Amino acid sequence: MKPTLFVLAAGMGSRYGGLKQLDGLGPNGETIMDYSIYDAIRGGFGKVVFVIRHSFEQDFREKIIKKYEHVIPVELVFQELEYLPAGFQLNPERVKPWGTNHALLMGKDVIKEPFAVINADDFYGRESFKILAEYLSGLDGQKNHYCMIGYQVGNTLSEKGSVARGICEKDQDNNLTSVVERTYIIRDTDGCIKYKDNDEQLVPIAENTPVSMNMWGFTPEYFDYSEAIFTDFLKENSNNIKAEFFIPLAVNQLVITGKAVVKVLETPSKWFGVTYTDDRQSVVDKINRLVEQGEYPAKLF
């Protein structure tokens, strides 16, 4: 059975402004998602599931899903703030989304096979999808063996401001030993890459430090683990209107407790994306170069 690609597209891109998932950046108005879907299909994925919010469903169906329906099966699920486990109620003051692993939970009822998770607004590169599909195709029927695509942090930064990344540590067998979401990583004026720790201090890290770009591979029991961890998370954070339930938080807990093994799959691909408005032209230029080099056709779908 071919693996499924689960695309997290519920975010509105507050730093960039507007619904950046629908922004046409390719020569024929292609979105970054279009390139991800194209790469996923030729890499070996068999279905695509999008998680979005109800507020932009119509636009999404008309501008995005129509392009793919004739080439690959597509399903749609929804993330809303009030979608919480039984016994929990939404704090009326909360406006911030619950985070990436909450969005992932929305796919439980429609994904029953090994699956990959990606962000809608990140350009991951052809080779990364191929590596991920090949690994996931070997997991059918297995449990508790996951993976992530590891990028070198120096290849994932924005020239326009700070970024958020999951900083990873791994053992000699390339199994993940920890991943910590750092919400402020930047190349400082001295050329060194640094992140802010929990005490707001800048900590230097090496250029080739592996980081998560939210490109993961799981098998379906991960949903059950996530529900249990989310329940514990809410018990501790229900009154914290800014707390977020990130995928690295759940993965880290499973790794530390020995419930799962996560293989770090290194990729030669370079990541790029539109984190800030000023990033847009750079992304347009990079896509045009890839088209000129023959990596992608001028019109994808």
Can you summarize this structure?
This protein has 7 helices and 13 strands. By secondary structure, the chain is α/β, with parallel strands linked by helices.
Task: Set out the fold topology.
Layout: E1 4-8, H1 32-43, E2 47-52, H2 57-68, E3 74-78, H3 100-105, E4 115-119, E5 122-123, H4 126-137, E6 145-152, E7 163-170, E8 176-187, E9 193-196, E10 202-205, E11 210-218, H5 221-237, H6 247-256, E12 261-266, E13 272-273, H7 280-292
Parallel strand pairs: 1-2, 1-4, 2-3, 6-12
Antiparallel strand pairs: 4-11, 5-13, 6-11, 7-8, 7-11, 8-9, 9-10
The shape is globular
Helix content: 25-40%
Query: Regarding CATH, which class of the domain at 4-143 and 212-248 and 270-292?
Result: Alpha Beta
Helices and strands, in N-to-C order?
Answer: EHEHEHEEHEEEEEEHHEEH
Number of helices: 7
CATH architecture of the domain at 4-143 and 212-248 and 270-292: Alpha-Beta Complex
Task: Specify the CATH homologous superfamily of the domain at 4-143 and 212-248 and 270-292.
Answer: Spore Coat Polysaccharide Biosynthesis Protein SpsA, Chain A
CATH domain fold name of the domain at 4-143 and 212-248 and 270-292: Spore Coat Polysaccharide Biosynthesis Protein SpsA, Chain A
Tally of DSSP β-strands: 13
Low-pLDDT runs: 12-17
Q: Would you mind describing this structure in some detail?
A:
The protein has a domain at 4-143 and 212-248 and 270-292: Spore Coat Polysaccharide Biosynthesis Protein SpsA, Chain A, CATH 3.90.550.10. It is globular. The protein is an alpha/beta fold and 301 residues long. Helix content is 27%, strand content 25%. Helix 1 (32-43) packs across helix 4 (126-137). Residues 12-17 have low confidence and may be disordered. Strand 2, helix 2 (57-68) and strand 3 form a beta-alpha-beta unit. Strands 1, 2, 3, 4, 6, 7, 8, 9, 10, 11 and 12 form an 11-stranded mixed beta sheet that branches. It has a two-stranded antiparallel ribbon with strand order 5-13. The two termini are 24 Å apart.
